[in-house]
Amino acid sequence: MAAQSIPLFETAFARCTITLILSYLWLRGNGQPIFGPAHARKFLFSRALTGCFSLLSFIYCIRRLPLSQAIVLSFTTPIMASIVARIILHEKLKIADVGGLACSFFGVLFIFRQILTTQGALLRVGETNYIAIKGRNHVLTVLVALFSSITGGISYCLIKAGAKASDQPLATVFSFGILATPATGICTFAFEEFVLPNAYTFFLMLILGLLSFSAEVFFAHGLQLEKTSKAANVLYMEVALSQIWGIGSRRITPSFGGLVGSLLILISVCCTLYFGPEKETE
């Protein structure tokens, strides 16, 4: 039985629904307040709102930009988060932090520049929903992508503030799920044709939802404990590991740009892990 092609909003709706259910059960099971303590609710609501804006605008961009461009623009989010954290949370941004983020982002550029120039066929597999646009519409879509990046960066800072205020990172995950689930559900039926998944596709969506939930919990906990710039830098591992997995499974032909980009990201993240947590949550 082959996996079906599921529309983007429907995929996001499934993941948000799983996140909402699991975070609710976790909070209930541990006797935690569902909506967090009263003094933390403003952070949790703001995190949910900015996170939802970021998600919806990112999906919009994926539908209208080449996949590589959308992903590269989305990975400016850790940089935005570090800048916003400097302004809102008054975190000190050291040269090592700036260097680590720059190294990781250049790694992303190396990887996707090579894919654009020599592996264009690979992109078409994931661009079935891509709508070609040019001129002013293209500029508008890039601006929406930057809006997604900025709101995503603000959301990271609010995750940190909300997790610290509530002393429970799951509260930030639940707050996002309770707003993003109906939002993506409405978009699913308003802008796309609903596809009923078969048993195998449903199983894959369930697994991806569980993995997504785990990633959100660990990331929220990481932001709670660490500096925003360091926690956000680890997100670049997603690109490097995807590239390495593609080469290992022979779906991607090894290339100089891909290998150099992955190496830059791995070096940057390893340096972040090596220096470890500072007693700085400044």
Please tag this protein with its features.
282 residues; mainly alpha; globular
Would you mind describing this structure in some detail?
- With 282 residues, the chain is an all-alpha fold.
- It has one domain.
- The chain is 77% helix and 0% strand.
- It has 12 helices and no strands.
- Helix 1 packs antiparallel against helix 8, helix 7 crosses helix 9 and helix 11 crosses helix 12.
- The radius of gyration is 19 Å and the shape is globular.
Q: Any chance you could write out the topology, listing elements then pairs?
A:
Layout: H1 8-29, H2 41-64, H3 67-74, H4 77-88, H5 95-118, H6 120-125, H7 135-166, H8 169-191, H9 199-225, H10 228-233, H11 237-248, H12 256-275
Taking the sheet with the most strands, its summary is: none
Low-confidence stretches: 118-130
Q: Calculate the terminal CA-CA distance, rounded to whole Å.
A: 53 Å
pLDDT averaged residue by residue: 85
Going by helix content, strand content and strand pairing, the class is mainly alpha
What spatial form do the alpha-carbon principal axes imply?
globular
